[in-house]
Structure formats: structure tokens, C-alpha cells
Specification:
The protein contains 2 helices and 5 strands. It is α+β, with helices and mostly antiparallel strands and about 100 residues long.
């Protein structure tokens, strides 16, 4: 069933810091009622962990590839995982 709960861990690479990427991701996560988090990594990447219905995650992932206007996504390393039900309401974490 397409609405089964799924989870993914994504590392977004490219011009994704200093361009509002975390807030962009946060807004979509909240608007789509997903659980998860986003944070900057010290190497310049952005990291996202999210859980929700599979079709909603697919739509969310499309937004990650687009990013905000000033961003440029080169690549997303994506790992689908089993859902654990341990994620908060979508939030922004401090940089790793």
C-alpha cells in the first residue's frame, strides 16, 4: 500500500548552506505533517531524517531536489530505512 509509513535518511550535497535550505525543508516537513529533522553538517552538506506515508515522502523528496531559489542540489545520498516512530514533529537541529 502506498500510504504505508516509510523513513529515509538523506544527505544533500551542493550549494545548500547559507541559502535558506534548512528552513525550506522545515516548512515542507511541517506542511506535509511529517516527523523528522534537518540540520547542516560541518562539511557543507544538509542532512535530513524523515518519516511519513510513502507517497508524501516521495513528494517531499522531489522538493529536496528542487531546494529554495538560491540553492543548487548536486546530489542526494538517500537511504530508505524501516520506520521507528521515534522522530519529533518536524524540527531544525543544530549543526552537526
Amino acid at each position: 500500500m502506498e500510504n504505508d509509513t516509510k523513513r529515509f535518511h538523506a544527505i544533500i550535497k551542493g550549494i545548500v548552506q547559507g541559502v535558506g535550505f534548512r528552513f525550506f525543508v522545515f516548512q515542507y516537513g511541517v506542511n506535509l505533517n511529517l516527523n523528522g529533522w534537518v540540520r547542516n553538517r560541518y562539511n557543507g552538506d544538509v542532512e535530513v531524517v524523515v518519516e511519513g506515508p510513502k507517497d508524501t515522502l516521495d513528494a517531499f523528496l522531489e522538493k529536496l531536489y528542487q531546494g529554495p531559489q538560491m540553492a543548487h542540489v548536486d546530489k542526494i545520498d538517500l537511504d530508505w530505512e524501516e520506520p521507528r516512530g521515534d522522530l519529533p514533529t518536524f524540527t531544525i537541529y543544530e549543526s552537526e
